[in-house]
Amino acid sequence: MADLDVILAPAIASDDLIGLELHLLDAIATRETPPVLLIHASMGRSISIGRYHLFRGPSERDGINVMRRLTGGRIAGAGEGWLGLALTLPSRTALLKEDTSRLKPDQIMNRYVRGLLSAMRALGIECFYPGRDAITFEHREIAMCTFETNASGAMLFEVSIAHNRGMEEVVHDLERIDPDGALSCRMYDATSATKVVRELARDISFDELADAIASGYRSTLGETRRRDLTAVETAKAQHRGRAIAASNWLVGPAAASSAKLKNRIAAQLGTIEAGVALDANNTIEAMRLSGDFIANSPAIAELENELRGEPLDLGSISHAVTKTFGRIDNFFLGAGELSNLVRLIAGVN
Known about the structure:
By secondary structure, the chain is an alpha+beta fold.
């Protein structure tokens, strides 16, 4: 029996992609479906923003679309010129052939990126994963990875791969979709970013690149089975995709705009901002973290609940952060030490 189903989706709509990922997280958590490696691409030029970015702009402007991932992390490219990889597993250590009892959350991406590194090596591109969220070739960024775990523990590991468009194009697209600069992104050029076709010095089709990736994950995670999306999966993807689009998923919760007290820090992946709203008793009514970080969404919801009704002081915030992220199934990557997160929230003004 295969360890991993491999599905190719060379032209999936962005809403359908989110809907499919939501469905697979649920179906794989309950073992209705085996683990799935989805290799996908979409039509049109797009910007992929992370789960925790604040965005109040339109979904499309000047021919550039914006989509919001289920995973956190930095802004990346999507759509035309980009290939996506979505690995969905029943837990974040599933399929790993090692003792995982001491495996820390920040080591998860190191393990699941190895199939992609193997694929790129087979194509003749010796990529490197230096840590955090970037995959590089000769110090130039060629892909970006991130992950999420839901309340049942199922994991979605995602990689955005610069196929024939790279981050140097994304920064220019970002200027067109977000002229006010609400979304932050470092500057890239040909010395700091690259793409697969540039390093191969030839064109490569979706199918050839996807086949290499499937072989890479077969060599690192176990036997695979190639299959198409089922009729149920297609229907669920469309239904849940429409539902999440209708829920204002792109813009995000209104609580973010009600925060009057704010603080921002430069962090490992970019910037992180805390916003706090106080009630009439001067206790925390709402707290919202946004920006360039990777965390499991249940932990962020748990932290927000822990802080609600608490005084805005260092002790209360430290207790809530430690209680939330002291649990082994919760993680927050991108701020460094958790004390930095405590100071970020406590320092709002």
